[in-house]
Structures are given as structure tokens and as C-alpha cells.
Amino acid sequence: MADSPMRINALIVDATDPERLAAFWSEVLGRPVVGRMGPYVWLRRENGLGLGFQRTGEPKSGKNRMHFDISAADPATEQHRVEMLGGRRLEHYADGGFLVMADPEGNEFCVIPEGPFELDDDGRADYLD
User: Fold this and answer.
1) Do 110 and 98 meet the contact criterion of CB atoms below 8 Å apart?
2) Enclosing domain of residue 7
């Protein structure tokens, strides 16, 4: 494949309270808030990728069309830390074997192991067993 002249510069998450959501993700990812401009709050750029939160007038509705996979050495330990920060586990996804969580505004994300893990033929993970 040829080298594309385009790159993903930043991921932007809509938020009714971008300050609160940025503070949550700052703690989860260890990336400090580094800027505010208009309706945006930005975390420190890492590996060339920015992460920002944009104020919107309406709350999230429906399932995310895109989500973050956050890797951790011990997903179960991170689940408890994320819950202490204001996130929650989404139990209705448990049958898939993934640790699916939601941030304070309901945006879904997965906490996955840093190392490899198996998927069955239906795409179910095995790392929570």
C-alpha cells in the first residue's frame, strides 16, 4: 500500500461537560489537560495523537459507532480504578468476554490486556475468565 499523505491528527469526543470528561480521561490515561480553546479541552498529545473533548448541547444517545480500546497489564484492577474515577462497567456486554466500560457521559470503551488474548469463532474474548 502506498504511503498516504493523510494521518489521524486527533480524536474528538463530544461532551456536555468537556471539563469533567477531560478530567476523567486525564486520570485514566495519565495525560494531563494541556489546553482549552473555545468549546474544546485538550489532553497532552502522545505518539502524535491528540485527544480533545468538544462541548455539545445534547447528551450522548445510542451506542458508540467507534470506541477506544485501552490496554492494561491487569484489566480487572483497572476496572476498579476506572469505577473510582466515575466510570462504570456495562454488564450487558459481558457475554462477549470483553471488559466494556463507560465514561461519565456513557461513551463505551474496552479495557483489554497488554498481551495477546484469544477470540473464539464468534469474536468472544477469553481474558476475563
Assistant:
1) yes
2) 1-57
